[in-house]
Amino acid sequence: MATKTKTTFAEGQLKSIVERIERLEEEKRTIAADIKEVYAEAKGNGYDVKVLRKVISLRKKEPAERMEEEAMLDVYLSALGMMPVEAAAA
């Protein structure tokens, strides 16, 4: 009898977890659609969406992490000869 109770509990718990995940996935789809609409609005107002996405990405990072990434980018661009002379000298 104890085994049946444990099995019933596990089944109920599993069902609850699956239902919660399904709800969250639906919320995620809704939020993704909302974000897409905001980017479309930004584009309609003349903003460059690719640059806007980069700005959002950079704002998520800590300043030190962002500075380190920018420094590495400068090193790579310089090594490939892609940096303007005045920027490489700075």
Characteristics:
4 helices; 0% strand; 84% helix; 90 residues; mainly alpha
Mind sketching the topology for me?
Elements: H1 2-44, H2 49-59, H3 63-79, H4 85-89
Number of helices: 4
Strand content: under 5%
Approximate helicity band: over 70%
Q: Average pLDDT, to the nearest integer?
A: 91
Rg estimate, integer Å: 24 Å
- Terminal Cα separation, in Å? 77 Å
Give a brief rundown of this model.
By secondary structure, the protein is an all-alpha fold. The chain is built from 4 helices and no strands. It has helices at about 1-45, 50-60, 65-80, 85-90.
Would you mind describing this structure in some detail?
The structure is a single chain. The protein is mainly α and 90 residues long. It has two domains: 1-59; 61-90. It contains four helices and no strands. The longest helix is centred in the N-terminal third of the chain and has 43 residues, at 2-44. The model has no long low-confidence stretch (mean pLDDT 91).
